[in-house]
Structures are given as structure tokens and as C-alpha cells.
Design a protein that fits this description.
single chain, mainly alpha, rod-shaped
């Protein structure tokens, strides 16, 4: 026959508490990893959209340049081309 006294109940409560704390930590880690993956996907989508916007602006600047707009157009066109070129090379080194 098994007798349950106060010490046994206290030990079971301690064990249950320890398991809950460990489980909570594991659950937190899983949620953190999931949230991080989701943020990475969102950042990839934002980068893709920004790249398309940059190419659209580049096309507009080139069009203005062909219409003999000078000064800030030429400067912005040069800076944007340098930026896109550098970004493309930086991305290649990551892959």
C-alpha cells in the first residue's frame, strides 16, 4: 500500500514546477525561431520590392537624362548605378 504524505506531495509539486519551467523555456525558444523565420521572409519580400522600385527610378532617371536633363539627374543616376552595382556584388558574396 502506498502512503502519500506531505513530503511526497511537495516533491511532486517541485517536479511538476521544474517540468513546466523547462517546457516554457522550450516553447519560448520554438516561438522565437518561428518568429525569426517569419521576419526573414518578410524582409526578403521587402528587399525584392525595394529592388524593383530602384530599377523603376533608374529607368526614370535614364529617361530624363535622354531628354537632356542635367545636374541633379546625372548625379542621382550615377549614385544609384553605383549603389545597385555594389549591392549586387555584396549579395553575390553572401551566396
Amino acid at each position: 500500500m502506498v502512503t502519500i504524505d506531505a513530503d511526497t506531495i511537495i516533491q511532486l509539486a517541485e517536479l511538476l514546477t521544474a517540468l513546466l519551467v523547462i517546457g516554457g523555456g522550450v516553447l519560448w525558444c520554438l516561438r522565437f525561431v518561428h518568429r525569426n523565420k517569419k521576419q526573414d521572409e518578410e524582409l526578403r519580400a521587402i528587399r525584392k520590392e525595394q529592388t524593383l522600385i530602384c530599377y523603376g527610378i533608374l529607368a526614370c532617371l535614364r529617361g530624363l537624362k535622354e531628354l537632356d536633363c542635367d545636374g541633379p539627374v546625372t548625379e542621382a543616376l550615377d549614385k544609384l548605378e553605383k549603389h545597385l552595382n555594389k549591392a549586387a556584388h555584396d549579395e553575390e558574396s553572401l551566396v
